[in-house]
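4.2 Preliminary Data

To establish feasibility before requesting continued support, the project team ran the inverse folding procedure on a target of 264 residues. The structure was first converted into the token representation described in Section 3, and no sequence information of any kind was made available to the design step. The complete token record follows.
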């Protein structure tokens, strides 16, 4: 983590939770106050779409921002069951996750689909959290860098810059499994992603863009992962479903950031 890039902790509730869970989060964490030095951190919760308005209302004046889990690439139209970026913005979202591996796998989303969604999100004024990552087989075959590189290049529109996107490296084999890559592996992939961004968008954008790690991040491993230079935060699934776990995770990230901030 680098003090120049405000860290992001984003919780992805996936298809979990009812209004009762939002009420519990509201009581347990949404009103807590952070260390002054950590106020530049961004904490995001991405609940299922029907819970967004309630969460947005409960999180007002808190340290937490709200995001969607996916959006359609069109603004409106005959797309039964879909939600546009404009609609997410309209109900209080500042962010949207796009290209999560669960969407890529279950809904056959390919890089070009993700790219259109990122474009739609940018147009609506949302920051996209663009997910990339390799499968276990691809890792075993030594294809990690190649896969991640092509996902980054093909999923992000030419016009998108560091203020429009955050990239989340999520090895698919680490999601929900309790397994994480070695610290060195995370460091190498993140450095490679920053390099790809530098070559495609310039060094200035690469230095400013935030890169998250996702895949079995928990309160007790978050500090180690965020200590890696090129890791600017985490995308968290399972541990974002418990208000206690998510709060400890956010607090641990904020403490680390506060230490970095005080050192300069
Ligand atoms: C995710 O689905 O984006 C994720 C990182 O999940 P988990 O933290 O449960 O591995």
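Position-by-position output of the design step:
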């Amino acid at each position: 983590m680098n003090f120049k890039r405000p860290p992001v902790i984003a919780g992805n509730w996936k298809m979990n939770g009812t209004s009762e869970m939002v009420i519990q989060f509201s009581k347990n964490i949404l009103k807590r106050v952070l260390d002054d030095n950590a106020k530049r951190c961004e904490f995001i919760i991405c609940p299922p779409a029907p819970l967004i308005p309630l969460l947005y209302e409960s999180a007002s004046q808190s340290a937490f921002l709200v995001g969607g889990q996916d959006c359609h690439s069109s603004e409106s139209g005959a797309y039964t069951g879909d939600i546009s970026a404009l609609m997410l913005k309209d109900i209080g979202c500042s962010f949207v996750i796009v290209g999560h591996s669960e969407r890529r796998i279950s809904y056959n989303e390919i890089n070009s689909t993700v790219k259109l969604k990122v474009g739609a999100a940018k147009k609506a004024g949302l920051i996209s959290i663009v997910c990339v990552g390799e499968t276990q087989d691809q890792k075993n075959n030594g294809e990690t860098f190649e896969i991640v590189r092509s996902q980054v290049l093909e999923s992000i529109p030419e016009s998108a810059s560091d203020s429009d996107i955050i990239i989340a490296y999520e090895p698919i084999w680490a999601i929900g499994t309790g397994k994480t890559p070695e610290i060195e592996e995370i460091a190498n992939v993140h450095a490679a992603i920053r390099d790809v961004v530098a070559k495609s968008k310039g060094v200035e954008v690469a230095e400013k863009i935030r890169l998250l790690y996702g895949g079995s991040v928990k309160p007790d491993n978050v500090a180690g992962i965020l200590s890696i230079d090129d890791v600017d935060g985490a995308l968290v699934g399972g541990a974002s479903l418990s208000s206690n776990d998510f709060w400890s995770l956010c607090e641990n990230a904020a403490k680390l950031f506060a230490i970095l901030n005080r050192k300069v």
